[in-house]
Sequence to fold (243 residues):
Amino acid sequence: MYTIQAYRVLRVISPTLQKREFMLFLCSFTAKIRISRIMEDLKLIVGKNLSSLRKAKKLTQIELAEKFNYSDKAVSKWEQGATLPDLETLKQLCDFYGVTIDYLTHEENIATPVVDDRREKTIFINRIITSCLIGLIIWMIATFMFVYPMIFREQQKPYWVMFVWAVSATAFITMVLNFIFFKRNRILSFVAWTVFAWTLIAATYLHFLFFSEPGRNIWPIFLIGIPLQMIFVLWFIIRKKTK
Fold:
């Protein structure tokens, strides 16, 4: 009845309006309302599941926010159903809690959170071991490049510079692994970038000092590190405020 009345009113406003066009408009409008309601329900379900999982892990909202480099206000909005995390963050949360995205989107899971602590610890330990293995490979290569010339070459040069290069390479690998494995920890990223920049500059300076023609004035290369360090500090502050 209300549909017929609405159609008659719209016909008065727009006499050229056809009944078929009106029905298509009505179906589209109804579908949008339903999708909006579904999204609102989904936000509430995901929020309740996230809250339940966090409490099962005995974490506060602030502690969880620090692990993912977000503010506690953002975590609060997720759990209240006001907003949804982006897909990448949602996947990271699932990995952290040891559940699937399908688990988060079903209401029957709210009362029975399932967190596999042993699986999570195993994954974390495996990541630490993998990181250590990569670091050891870097230092093994540096050690080989230090020892080989001392044994098989008569000319002795300060090949210990290779270890400075190894520090720079280790810092770079730490940045990559932090991005892949460790939830992009902001402090670790800042420290790794700082160490990488300064050791790279130092290694370049020492390489030119000991392995190139003497007399080159290359100490100004360290001046490059000053604006770089300022960029790192500002980026660190910006990321802290925007999360």
